[in-house]
Amino acid sequence: MFKIGDFARINRVTVKTLRYYDNLGLLQPEKIDHNTGYRYYSADQMPRLNKILSLKDIGFSLDEISVILNKNMDSEQIQILLELKRSEVFNRLKDEQARLTRIETLIKMCKQEEYSMKYDIVLKKIEPIRVASLRGTIPNYSEQEHLWNELAEHIQKHGARIVPPCMVIYHDIGYKEETVDAEVIEPIEGRLPDTHRIKVKELEGVDEMACVVHKGPYQTLNMPYSAITKWIEENGYEIVGPQRELYLKGEWITSDQNEYITEIQFPVRKA
Length: 271
Known about the structure:
Layout lengths: L1 E2 H8 L3 H10 L6 E2 L6 E3 L4 H12 L4 H9 L4 H16 L6 H15 L10 E5 L2 E10 L6 H13 L3 E2 L3 E5 L9 E10 L8 E6 L2 E10 L6 H13 L2 E3 L4 E6 L11 E10 L1
Helix pairs in contact: 5-6
C-alpha cells in the first residue's frame, strides 16, 4: 500500500486533491492508521482515480462524476454521456480542440471495449549513456518546448549528433500542478561544450528498470502509469528514483497522436 504522498506522486495529483476527493466521497483511503492518522491507498484504487481524472479533464463536474461512479454506469451509458459532451465542445472556440480530441479517444475506446487496456511490463538493465541535458522549471508537464529548442540549438551549433530516443526525467518528489522540475535529455555523439545551463555528462545506468511501452496520445499516459505501478506493487518491488519518459515516436514523425509511442521507466529494487 502507498502513503498518501507516494500515491499522489505516482498518479500525478496533489495530496490536497486526494483529501478533497476523500471529503466528497469520490475516493477514500483504503486504510487509515488511527494511531498516526496516516492515510494509505492501494494500487487497486488507481483505475477509479484515473476514471475521475479522465472525466474531470473532459469537462464533467465532480457532482456529475459522483453520479456516474455511484450509479455504476456501463460503457454504453458512459458513451452516451460522452457523445452529449462532444456536441457541447463542437460549439466552443478553437482553443477547445484539444479537449475534443480526448473525448473522441474515450468514445473510440468505449466502442471497441478497450477502456481497460493491458500492458506488458518488463525489467531491463539500462546501460550508462553520454547525453546533453538541460534542467529547468516549467509551468506544467506539457510546456517543455522551450527547453527542447534551447538544447537542440546548442547541439546543432557545435555539430554533435543526436542519438534517439530523447527523454525527460522529472525530479520532483511529488506531483506538482505548476513549477515542475524537469530535465530534458538528448543522447549524443561527438564533441560538445557545457554552458551554464546545458550539461554534457554520462547518464547513470540502472540495474533494474521496470519499463512499459504506450501507444497513443500523451493525454492517456495515466493508463500505462497505472499499469506499471500496480505491477511494481504486486511483484514486491519499490521505486528507488525518478521516472524517465522516453519518446520513441512523436510529432516529429507523425501528425497522428494515436501513433505516438512512449516508454515509461521506473528504477526499482526488491522491497
